[in-house]
Amino acid sequence: MFELQAPLIARREVASGMWVLSFSAPEVAATARAGQFVNLLLRPGPLLRRPFSVYRATSGVVEVLLKPVGAGTAGLAALALGESVSLLGPLGSGFQLDQAAGSVALVSGGLGVAPMPLAARAAAALGLQVHWVHGARTAAELCSEWEGRRVHWATDDGSIGYHGSVLAAIPEGIGQVVACGPNRMLAALAARFPRAQVAIETYMGCGTGVCLGCAVPRTSGVYDRACKEGPVYQANDIRWDVLPQHLHYGLGA
User: Based on the domain organization, do 11 and 108 belong to the same domain?
Assistant: First the structure.
């Protein structure tokens, strides 16, 4: 884990109101794995850091995906090129991809697409056939960047791809499923793919396991810390009926 001052070097809009911010952070870029996250602190700004999945990490650059929903994310989105944030990471556990699976579906809803580009590259490096399965409310809200052998879109309004839930767009015969998105979506996915790996959303404070603000209820009866033991879990290990359902993955206010 590293803590460093990371200047913003680029930004681009990849969906309606959804931005990728690129920060120079060589140490973190060299060690980040798919499913891990970074904690960003903006000064002046909110008291707590904001957690974001690593979108891409290459050539000394760490990218995160965000949509402004409150003061914290609005402040980050308004950063000028050259301005720096305090970047802490990489944090948490990542996806464990199975080379023997042959193929993998990267399933995401809305902002849950955040960890998938890094996951796609890791899967491709293992020789897995990568199916990019992404859903959103409308075509305009789908991430315009995708990686893999084939893309499967789903929209709530039917403006592109499958008309309905992204879960219905998952192709048959997939060897492994990894997913990220709203907890309601992940809970439904767990019923169909109990051994899927899911990156969950929960409230976070410190991001380093100290504050215990990100407690995750397990079916074993214990509570984990999403920032340390997670945020990636096997789908059937989570008490979905207890986990908060109405959050924005990877975002603070």
Answer: no
